[in-house]
Amino acid sequence: MDIAVCRAEDLAVLERFMPSSSVDGHHAARLARQQAGKSTYLIPWLDGRPVGHAEVRWTGCEAPEVRLAQPGCPEINGLLVWPESLRSRGVGTALVRAAERLARERGVSAMGLGVGDDNRRAAALYARLGYRPTVTYVDRWAYRDADGVRHECADACTFLVKELSRAAPT
Questions:
Q1: Contact predicate 2/51, CB 8 Å
Q2: Over the Cα atoms of the chain, what is R_g?
Q3: β-pair partners for 22
Q4: Could you tell me which of 72, 124, 74, 126 has the C-alpha nearest to residue 99?
Q5: Rounded distance, CA 81 to CA 158, Å?
Q6: Residues 6 or more apart whose Cβ sits within 8 Å of residue 55
Q7: pLDDT tens digits, residue range 29-53?
Q8: CA-based nearest residue to 62, from 15, 100, 105, 29
Q9: Angle, vertex CA 20, rays to CA 16 and CA 21, nearest 5
Q10: Domains in the chain, please, with CATH?
């Protein structure tokens, strides 16, 4: 498996294997933030196809509660391993480690990420990787269904942080 920074020419392949359903255009919006210098969009590739993604948002989490509690803390956002049959095979761990490596290269001393309170599997992974709870918040997001109807969602989450300066490079 290779993890690479997303390129414009990757969008068509990403849409074919992991179609966008969010209101913001998902892959295209993440690439636009990357091109604006606000993030880095990481894509893991296996046998020539994308098997997930994670966006390192250098500007931090958008939730006001998190911004207040963790000002300036970059966030790993939208971590996904797809298809589900590839979960628990190291793809998520590799994405987190790649994000941490990028942060260290930038001199960042801490990295954060949010996890839904109902996502015990992801929370267990992040705890194993050294992330600790700091603040609870509500993640607000939207998507369009197959009929084009917009749905707004609100998920109870916890923002986790790992001090990179104290962690051994991975």
A1: no
A2: 15
A3: 143
A4: 74
A5: 20
A6: 30, 33, 34, 39, 40, 41, 42, 76, 77, 78
A7: 999 999 999 999 999 999 999 999 9
A8: 29
A9: 135
A10: 2-163 (3.40.630.30)
Measured between alpha carbons, how far apart are the two ends of the chain, in Å?
16
Residue 44: CB atoms within 10 A of its CB come to: 24
**Residue 61 CB coordination number (10 Å):** 24
Average pLDDT of the chain is 92
Phi then psi for residue 9, to 5 deg, are -70, -10
The residues with which 139 forms a beta bridge, in sequence order, are: 155
Instruction: For residue 71, say if its preceding peptide bond is cis, omega within 30 degrees of 0.
Output: no
* Predicted TM-score (pTM) above 0.70: yes
* Per-residue confidence (pLDDT) for residue 150, from 0 to 100: 87
C-alpha span between 159 and 152 (Å, rounded):
21
